[in-house]
Amino acid sequence: MNVKTLKTLFVMLFFFGTTQVAKGQTVSELERYDIIISEVMAKPTPTIGLPAVEYIELHNRLPHPVSLQNWKLNVGNTVKKLPNITLDSCGYAVIIAQKFETDFAPFCEHIITLSSLAITDGGQSLTLYDQHDAVIHHIQFKREWHSETIKQEGGWSLEMVDENWPCAEKWNWDSSTDPLGGTPGRPNSIRNTLYDNDSPTISGITMTDSLTLRIHFSKTLTDNVLAQESLFQTSPNLEILCITEVPPKFSSLDVHFSNPPQPNITYRLLVNGHLTDCSGSLYPVYLETLFGISSPPSHNDLVINEILTNPLDNQNAEYLEIYNRSNHIIDLKDVKVGYGGDTLPQKAVVAVSKGFQLHPQEYAVLCKQREITLQQYICKDEKRLMECDSMPDFAISEGVIHLTDRSLRPIDRLAYSEEMHYDKLLTTKGVSLERLYANHPTQDENNWRSAAESAGFGTPGYQNSQSGNAESEDEFEVLPDVFSPDNDGFEDYTEVLCKFTEDENRVSINIFNNRGHPVKQLANNVLCGTEAFFRWEGNDENGNPAPAGMYVVQIEKWNLRTQKTVRKRKVVSIYRQ
Which of 447, 422, 431 lies closest to 303 in space, CA to CA? Predict the structure, then answer.
């Protein structure tokens, strides 16, 4: 081939490529997140400034036009075929129902019309597919993504904050601040740059079949992990054939084995290497978790261990804690949570539809709004908390909660009432009911107590503050008994540690100097469980540093149910240079 022929071929290829781009085609295939869903108006009434029209906004992140020929949009379970239109370079287009085109035209230049568009007010899944049925973008928005409650009532759109985090959920979305209530067809009013340096963690694990282990991660990953089979190892060793993604969210991976794991063996999965999230950030990780073959749950294998039915601030944030008291793994995709009814629940939903292996003597917490639970309570192991917004609503005063298998065979059942709470509480708002003993009958009212104030009135995901204690006598310790509150990071405070043989204790702790004068009150009639601790940082009641010297810690505990009172005194010293 001579030079002239090569030049002619090059010109033809260049002309063909530029022509295709001009027509809205790309020379190479699109990648995930090149086109994104950047704004959603799910509840347009009461109107703020825009017409009462639902819409979904698409944004082209590429510096050239893109054709949407043969693309699809799934709205929940409804498939919508998009018309053959072209998105401008870095441009926007808004999807609406055809009957509203005239009303909406003055507010948006580029409109995509469909025969109908019904978006669920409370939130649903939205998935954009290209002509090859590859997922380009997916969100599963919720009404609670509006951080201001008043905007949840309608008239305001949800906008993406930072398009560099297209896979992020609630923290990258919020209400529009535009005076019209939204910004259809133009840059979002709340756009900003966000940062997230949290490494991906394993949030759950399940076996989808005898040869496939599904790993749920806390963040959405990129597909470069598929070529890194060496990232994953098991002990005892199982040969890994390949790794595949789980659409449409891509926050889960399937590990395919050549031979199935064996029953009655607990395997350890190790993820060691680097993972990349959807923003392109690379994280070194060393993650470990256990898995195995689960067994179907039987009666009393799982028990209801803690319930919150009266959340703070009237928020829809109930939670239910489950404890595995059996000797085998139970997958929570095989468990249903029900409410109401006597022998059978009036309504029941799968506890964790995506699957979560609960090992013996482990806890799992099903939350109506996981983020609110994390904000309001001490959560020692966040992966124990799972969002279950489809969980039935729990009545505040009294009700019945069921645990069943998928065939509605009973596992556990609790008929609860407010009278089961500690009767001296001024309010039960935000106070959970805790089970004392896992092996005692669920329906025994003496087996339930209000969560201790000293534990924050709830212990989701770990041992209850009111769990049974078999110690022979009350114990009080002050550690260390000599401390130096000089903010040098070494023994800057002392702690009063309490262990009680009974639950529902009232505790008062006062500090006196060597002349018997009161210096500081650490606790005043605080409701405690079987364990509690209180910290003293060496200051007086006004926050001023107490002088060096010896102090007496007076601990007074009484239990109104048993009419038992205990008083103790301990000596502690402050050392100051």
Answer: 447
3-class SS at 246?
Answer: coil
Token readout for 255 is: 């590990």
Q: How far apart are CA 121 and CA 141, in angstroms?
A: 10
Of residues 577 and 136, more confidently modeled: 136
Question: Of the candidates 184, 217, 224, 223, which has an alpha carbon nearest to the alpha carbon of residue 202?
Answer: 217
* Assigned token pair, 171: 């923290």
CA dihedral in degrees (344, 349, 354, 359; nearest 10)? -40
pTM: 0.77
Peptide bond into 63 cis (omega under 30): no
Q: What is the C-alpha to C-alpha distance for residues 159 and 530, in angstroms, rounded to an integer?
A: 47
Q: How is 308-373 classified by DSSP, letter by letter? A: E-S-GGG-S--EEEEEE-SSS-EEGGGEEEEESSSSS-SEEEES-TT--EE-TT-EEEEESSHHHH
pLDDT, one tens digit per residue, over 361-394 is 999 999 999 999 999 999 999 999 999 988 988 9
The answer to whether 544 touches 525, Cβ cutoff 8 Å, is no
In the three-class reduction of DSSP (H, G, I as helix; E, B as strand; rest coil), residue 77 is classed as: coil
Can you say whether the dihedral through the CA atoms of 47, 191, 109, 34 is positive or negative? negative
Q: What is the pLDDT of residue 316?
A: 86
- Mean pLDDT to the nearest integer, 541-557: 92
pLDDT of residue 474: 64
Cis bond leading into 260, ω under 30°?
A: no
**Distance of alpha carbon 172 from alpha carbon 165, whole angstroms:** 7
The one-character DSSP state at 100 is G
What per-residue confidence (pLDDT) applies to 576? 82
Mean pLDDT, residues 299-306 taken together: 96
172 secondary structure, DSSP code: G
Contact 169, 142 (CB under 8 A): no
In terms of residues, how long is the chain?
A: 577
| Spatial separation of the C-alpha atoms in residues 451 and 425, rounded to whole Å | 11
DSSP letter string, 437-475? -TTS-TT-GGGEEEPPGGGTS--TTS--TT-----SS-E
Instruction: Identify whether the C-beta of residue 125 lies closer than 8 Å to the C-beta of residue 14.
Output: no
Query: pLDDT exceeding 70 applies to what percent of the chain?
Result: 93
| 347 or 471, which is more confident | 347
Residue 93 parent element (H or E):
strand 92-97
State how far the Cα of 347 lies from the Cα of 341, in Å rounded to an integer.
8
For residue 209, name the pLDDT band (cuts at 50, 70, 90). Answer: very high
Question: Per-residue pLDDT tens for 106-130?
Answer: 999 999 999 999 999 999 999 999 9
pLDDT at 493: 85
d(CA 376, CA 201) in angstroms, rounded, equals: 22
Two tokens, residue 401: 């909660």
Q: Please report the pLDDT score of residue 299 as a whole number.
A: 95
Name residues whose C-beta falls within 8 Å of residue 160's C-beta, 6 or more positions apart in sequence. Answer: 36, 37, 38, 39, 166, 172, 173, 188, 191
pLDDT band at 468 (very low <50, low <70, confident <90, very high): low
